[in-house]
Amino acid sequence: MTQQYQIPVPAELPERIQHYIDGEFVDSADGDTFDVLNPVTNEAYIKAAAGKKADIDRAVEAAQRAFDEGSWSSALPRERSRVLHKIADIVEERGARLAELETFDTGLPITQARSQGRRAAENFRFFADLIVAQADDTFKVPGRQINYVNRKPIGVAGLITPWNTPFMLESWKLAPAIATGNSVVLKPAEFTPLSAGLWAGIFEEAGLPKGVFNLVNGIGEEAGDALVKHPEVPLISFTGESKTGQLIFGNAAPWLKGLSMELGGKSPAIVFADADLEAAINATIFGVFSLNGERCTAGSRILVERSIYDEFVERYAAQAKRVKVGFPHEPETEVGALVHPEHFEKVHSYVELGKTEGRLVAGGGRPEGFEQGNFIAPTVFADVPPEARIFQEEIFGPVVAITPFDTEEEALELANNTKYGLAAYVWTNDLKRSHNFAQAVEAGMVWLNSNNVRDLRTPFGGVKASGLGHEGGYRSIDFYTDQQAVHINLGEVHNPIFGKSKDA
Ligand code: NAD
């Protein structure tokens, strides 16, 4: 392919991407590597170590040793909290470098990569605060018994993450897993392994003991699979596609592992006629086109009340056409390049399919001037029927389906009419309706008159095919710890006495 674009390459890229095991950067035991592509040119720009079972075994052994040794797993919450705050400080200090690498590797617009970096730091700060404030239950039965909860880290947690906002999503699992005293083995997504290597230096500098954090790169079906099937890894926290989640669920079953799964979505934004239309349009444009549409909680189906439907579609399409597609490193870019040519092909095929299923009102293919790389213009289909595949299936790109409704009942039926249930966004100024609708919609998270703005204390997770379990706030602490119940007798020993009969 001829190199058409001149885009800056970050200075001082590593020679190759390696694993990080027991405090050392290492290659795969068999020396195998895979190519990592630049999403703007689709040229391979670096090789990454392709981890297999032998590398996972080594990483788990190191993690287990660090756990058993106890300097982290038995540290006081305040000591762990200090290290976590330091990690957050360093992530913030290195924000510019982190964003530069993330943008180069993923195709995310630089301004959005910067804000994801700040979120990553905040995740560490949040759990640093939470573990020192942690209180566990104690129950008293006066004069008879005291019962208390002895909370303990579990051991080695396996963390498997996707390629959309990789560093931030890694922080989401690393922070609570480490905060609670576990050791971890992280398996980042193979499309975007570059930024994960930064964790090693950050953790070392912050004072995390050697072996607590381990990183194994590789293909999901090899490195990820070996982690899921490792008998000494009792916990798997996974974020990715629903069908991968199903596979992992089955593969983890023989060991009855603890599983937390954040999966796919096809979240609805429901706009009633009484909504603040300007705010609803701005938020729903951002909701599906930010992060290149590669966002699990994207509001990728917009349901609009019929009386405002035509106006909404016209204004929405006009604004979508003005969304600025550009090179990921340019500060004015709003939509960059999709992560990988395979993903580009998938999104592009949905765009073509959409032309047969709905009415194309914006976008519809490559934007002008971007004949190479993984660029797709923000694409809007109107009049999309609920049985359409572009209404039902997760596209994970800058593509949105708009559908009219006549009544609140119909809106709810349409909103719930997919296998997914991650997020929902409701736009109305009717107080009763907003709460009734929010409570009835099948979604793990609902925002009323708002885009996705997260409060880290709230549960995060989906229902139906969108997930299993909840993380977020103390729920993450619960997932990464065992809660052992300890019962103390204060009075008479309380049980019937067997074996006292003289006739026996
Ligand atoms: P994916 O399922 O293809 O891969 C996710 C991770 O799983 C990668 O690290 C991959 O290597 C690994 N993997 C793949 N096969 C595996 C196997 N057999 N065993 C173990 N590990 C395996 O997902 P993706 O394409 O990287 O990410 C996009 C998906 O993630 C979308 O569906 C999106 O909605 C979802 N997602 C969900 C959330 C959420 O919180 N609900 C957040 C972000 C992304």
From TrEMBL:
Molecular functions per Gene Ontology: 5-carboxymethyl-2-hydroxymuconic-semialdehyde dehydrogenase activity
**PANTHER family (alphabetical):** 2-AMINOMUCONIC SEMIALDEHYDE DEHYDROGENASE
On the tree of life, the source organism's domain of life is: Bacteria
Name any one Pfam family assigned in the record.
Aldedh
* CDD domains per record: ALDH_F8_HMSADH
Tell me which UniProt keywords the record has, alphabetically.
Answer: NAD, Oxidoreductase
What is this protein identified as?
A: 5-carboxymethyl-2-hydroxymuconate semialdehyde dehydrogenase
Q: Name one GO biological process term.
A: 4-hydroxyphenylacetate catabolic process
Q: Where is the Aldehyde dehydrogenase domain?
A: 25-486
Q: Does the keyword Oxidoreductase apply?
A: yes
What NCBIfam families would the database entry show?
Answer: HpaE (TIGR02299)
Q: Which family does it belong to?
A: Belongs to the aldehyde dehydrogenase family.
**Catalytic site positions:** E262
